[in-house]
Design brief:
The protein is of the alpha/beta class. It has 15 helices and 28 strands. The chain has an eight-stranded parallel barrel with strand order 8-9-12-15-16-17-20-21, surrounded by four helices. A five-stranded antiparallel sheet has the order 22-23-24-28-26, covered by helices on one side. Helix 6 (213-230) packs parallel to helix 7 (252-267), helix 8 (301-312) runs antiparallel to helix 9 and helix 11 (389-401) runs parallel beside helix 14. It is globular and about 85 Å long. The chain starts with a strand and ends with a strand. 49% of the residues are buried.
């Protein structure tokens, strides 16, 4: 087979295949090649005898520091040939971390739980990153070999079995990918060429617009297309795109959008690109002919923050601005709270408005919890650890009755009692200690004692973070699960709830924000977040009771809501 590698600054490159070294020939554009037969391989640059894994490796059976292994995509026996994909509009996303979704922490054990997701009614399964990182356990955001699937999860065939099984149940698969930085252990790209430029908050950033950046951009694009084409993945969640520094006339995200659209046409199924962005900039999801990047959706942290403050009363960190009484109503109508307005957390103005007459709501994700908003808390505590069931129910009702694309974090649907904590397993003791002390130092500034911050390197932290699959049928969990099933079913059956027209959304609230009535055409969601009963107007005569928590059916044109309760009704 032909081994190739991009190493534009090297004067000599060798490839070691099955223990034997072979000189490689220099080609155009800094590419080197050698035709050799074998399976296990690594590259040696110049006169350095340190073998390095392939930057475009498809398999790393021995870890990110060791040699790569040849992998043939054509050998897998797919059974999803009739799969035509799922579009995002009208969908419901379920976010999960492969290593803690089940006790086994593998693709195969996750397949055993897919019937639960199909029964729940979700349409898209979003996997946190599964590419190779150093160690056994981790969130996945410290990946260094982007094309190789993490071996402890089951390697590339394991991911394919998972995707195949999802498609067999009508579930689309979204994959979280990280192109904004490389992890701190096993990132050898800079030895091959000018891959790096500057740093992000998390590690070395990519050279996307400097000398040699054309091949670096191609590296990203080819990786993205590979997941969609070769692994049959239905879409990508692009991590923290605000950290992609790109001054080229055509931004990398726009270039990716163009190439994914072309691939979608070739494959004959929809492919979805979802951005995580801190910019509050609708340009990301504005069509290219409208001057945007043409991505299909982006996360909307502002709605999460407004809901979190309303349910918990927390106003520290980045939450203070969202204590405004109208914060939740504004984010339900306008997507972003900060729309060219002052952000006290950033100490500057932030964001720009969404044109609600033009952009549909399904281009923005709504969520009550996600991996960051749980795992980046000192103790990794879920809302269910501190918030009563009635408020959890109100929060879920707001998410599923919103005009946005709902997303659920694994276990949220039954108010899981297990935390989801930050963990890693770097073998290098110095790096492990740096992560451990850095985590404790970070939270000590917010008043946490060091002993109260879980040790991210302790295997027990991973064990604590695994879902307990005995809970969904237990008292206190079963009722929340049934509510989630009901809300997802209603969103599918009642077109008013999935209507993405933001200009049609009407929200009424109490002056202090303690109650809310969300109008979805003739449907009304009335929530009481407060600790006292209230009577709220429905702007219409109550008809069929579709869903409720802790509240009797409404009468006439108003609803009497006990503390921490909601009703969803039709009106005439």
């Amino acid at each position: 087979m032909m081994f190739t590698v991009w190493a534009p600054e090297a004067d000599r490159v060798r490839v070691r295949v099955d223990g034997t070294e072979h000189e490689m020939a220099a080609g155009a554009g800094g590419w080197w090649q050698a035709e050799v037969t074998g399976t296990e391989y690594a590259f040696l640059l110049g006169d350095d005898d340190r073998p390095l894994p392939d930057p475009r490796s498809l398999r790393q059976p021995h870890g990110v520091h060791e040699q790569s292994r040849v992998y043939d995509h054509g050998e897998f026996g797919w059974t999803d040939r009739s799969w035509t994909g799922r579009q995002l509009p009208g969908g419901v996303i379920y976010e999960l971390h492969l290593g803690t979704f089940t006790a086994g922490g593998t693709f195969d054990t996750a397949i055993e739980r897919l019937d639960h997701l199909a029964d729940l009614g979700v349409t898209h399964v979003e996997l946190l990153p599964v590419n190779s990182f150093d160690g056994v356990a981790g969130w996945g955001y410290d990946g260094v070999l982007w094309g190789a699937v993490h071996e402890p999860y089951g390697g590339p065939d394991g991911l394919k079995r998972f995707v195949d099984a999802c498609h067999g149940r009508g579930l689309a698969v979204l994959l979280d990918v990280v192109y904004n930085h490389l992890g701190p252990s096993g990132a050898y790209l800079d030895r091959f060429g000018p891959y790096f430029a500057g740093r992000t908050d998390w590690g070395a950033g990519l050279n996307l617009d400097g000398p040699g950046s054309d091949e670096v951009r191609r590296y990203v694009l080819d990786n993205a297309l590979g997941w969609l084409r070769d692994f049959h993945v239905d879409g990508l969640r692009l991590d923290a795109v605000h950290a992609l520094v790109d001054k080229c006339a055509t931004h990398l995200l726009e270039e990716l959008s163009v190439e994914v659209e072309a691939l979608s046409t070739t494959l004959g199924r929809p492919l979805t690109l979802i951005a995580e962005s801190d910019l509050n900039d609708p340009k990301l999801v504005t069509s290219r002919d409208g001057g945007g990047y043409g991505l299909h959706a982006q996360w909307s942290d502002d709605l999460h923050h407004a809901l979190h403050v309303r349910l918990t009363g927390e106003t520290t960190g980045y939450y203070p601005d969202f204590a405004a009484p109208d914060a939740l109503a504004k984010t339900l109508r306008e997507v972003f709270f900060h729309t060219g307005t002052w952000s006290s957390f950033r100490e500057r103005t932030h964001g720009r408005p969404v044109d609600t007459r033009v952009l549909p709501g399904h281009r923005f994700l709504a969520y009550l919890q996600d991996h960051d908003q749980i795992g980046n808390r000192a103790a990794g505590d879920r809302l269910s650890a501190t918030v009563p069931a009635g408020l959890l129910a109100c929060g879920a009702a707001v998410v599923f009755c919103s005009p946005y694309t709902p997303m659920v974090f694994m276990g949220e649907e039954w108010a899981a009692s297990t935390p989801w904590q930050f963990f890693a397993s770097f073998p290098d003791p110095e790096l492990a200690e740096a992560v451990r002390t850095g985590r404790r130092r970070e939270f000590s500034r917010h008043g946490w004692a060091a002993e109260d911050v879980p040790d991210p390197m302790d295997p027990a932290t991973v064990v604590r973070s695994r879902l307990d699959w005995s809970e969904p049928g237990a008292d206190g969990h079963r009722e929340i699960l049934e509510l989630y099933r009901t809300l997802i079913r209603l969103r599918r059956e009642r077109p008013e709830l999935a209507d993405p027209r933001l200009s049609e959304v009407v929200v009424e609230t109490a002056p202090d924000g303690s109650w809310l009535v969300l109008h979805r055409d003739a449907l009304r969601l009335a929530c009481n977040f407060g600790a006292e009963p209230v009577t709220v107007p429905l702007a219409g005569t109550a008809g069929e009771l579709l869903a409720a928590w802790g509240a009797p059916g409404p009468e006439g044109s108003s609803a009497r809501l006990p503390a921490h309760s909601f009703v969803l009704v039709s009106t005439g």
